[in-house]
Automatic annotation (TrEMBL):
The keyword NAD applies. SUPFAM superfamilies: 6-phosphogluconate dehydrogenase C-terminal domain-like (SSF48179), NAD(P)-binding Rossmann-fold domains (SSF51735). One of its GO terms (molecular function) is NADP binding. Keywords: NAD, Oxidoreductase. Residues 5-155 form the 6-phosphogluconate dehydrogenase NADP-binding domain. PANTHER family: 3-HYDROXYISOBUTYRATE DEHYDROGENASE-LIKE 1, MITOCHONDRIAL-RELATED. This is 2-hydroxy-3-oxopropionate reductase. The active site is at K164.
């Protein structure tokens, strides 16, 4: 019998984790303020539970939105022997302190932010950037293997999210480059589907075209990773760069597009909807 696992937050990422773990024989419980998400989990073979029951599984995933919510989760946790695996993109400079806060309650905090969309996570095609206690992380290897194509231990608390932020910067700019190229091609009379096929066969190819290209071409922005999350991550990227006195001009341009999307009520669309503020842009 595989170990029981609890999940706090069963939105896009938490649901995808549940899919992977249930399909690999794990007993999965979830806690979410939205009853519909709990009902969906039970339809998959999991169990909707209260917070205490989640902690009692001993192996807990945090799929909350940001660092503040992770801190609240730890503050509200009981004194219990458990491992808490945070897969969210969080402020790397706060992770060591959160690890100490968790340890005071008997909880071992492990970072494992995900590189990949919720859809790729559900398929097991993601990278986990693991940080924290190496021995505990080693013991979690079967769980990480059930979720991902690879998991790499990157050192102490904070390093997982430092790596994640840098990778998210590259991914976000790749999405924006594809979106701007598609908008430009369409203004020249090239159909989006035709341009996407040409781009995939060209020297400009990137895997972003496989994951996001069709969404852009069809303007079907059903969320795999939301604009509001991308905005949160890029605000954090910009803040960390500013603290290091490093300018990131492309990051600022991307942030402006995210802010435009939020101003137009597009925060819950997929992050490929970066195409929309680009399409609205006018020459200076």
């Amino acid at each position: 019998m595989t170990r029981p696992i609890g999940i706090f937050g069963i939105g896009l990422i938490g649901n995808a984790i549940a899919i992977r773990l249930i399909s690999n024989g794990y007993q999965v419980s979830g806690c979410d303020p939205d009853p519909a998400r709990g009902a969906a989990l039970e339809q998959m073979g999991g169990k909707a539970c209260d917070a205490q029951s989640i902690w009692e599984t001993g192996c807990v995933f945090s799929c909350v939105f940001d660092t503040d919510q992770l801190e609240s989760l730890i503050v509200d946790a009981p004194a219990i022997t458990a491992t808490l695996i945070s897969v969210s993109t969080c402020d790397p400079d706060r992770m060591a302190g959160l690890g100490q806060m968790a340890a005071a309650k008997g909880i071992t905090l492990i970072e494992a932010p995900i590189s990949g969309t919720s859809r790729s996570l559900a398929a097991g095609d993601v990278l986990l950037m693991v940080a924290g206690d190496r021995d505990v992380a080693h013991d979690l290897a079967p769980v990480f293997q059930a979720l991902s194509r690879a998991h790499i231990h990157v050192g102490d608390h904070g390093n997982g999210n430092r790596a994640k932020l840098a990778i998210n910067l590259v991914l976000g700019l790749n999405r924006a480059a594809l979106a701007e190229g598609m908008v430009f091609a369409e203004t020249l009379g090239i159909a989006p589907d035709d341009f996407l096929n040409l781009a995939k066969a060209s020297a400009a190819y990137s895997s972003v075209m496989d994951g996001k290209g069709t969404l852009m071409a069809t303007r079907d922005f059903t969320a795999q990773g939301r604009i509001v999350q991308s905005h949160k991550d890029f605000e954090l990227i910009a803040d960390k760069a500013a603290q290091a006195n490093q300018g990131l001009p492309f990051t600022q341009t991307y942030l402006n597009m995210m802010r435009d999307a939020l101003d137009h009520g597009e925060g819950d669309l997929d992050n490929s909807a970066v195409l929309l503020p680009i399409a609205r842009a006018k020459p200076d």
